[in-house]
User: What shape does this take?
Amino acid sequence: MKREPANGAAADTEADLRSDPLIGRLRTMFDEVAAEPLPNDLMRLLQQLDEAERKR
Assistant: This one.
């Protein structure tokens, strides 16, 4: 059975993750991808879905 770490251990793990260079690069990459605009085709599909939902 897996045990949850004590609060101190969880805080240590979180601090380790914040200072990990790989985690930092992954966060940067995620932020860059998340900031990209949605493609026009996808935006049109989302608008069509919104319109269809409003008509229900």
DSSP finds three helices and no strands in the chain. Residues 2 and 10 are 14 Å apart (CA to CA). The mean pLDDT is 86. The first helix runs from residue 7 to 19.
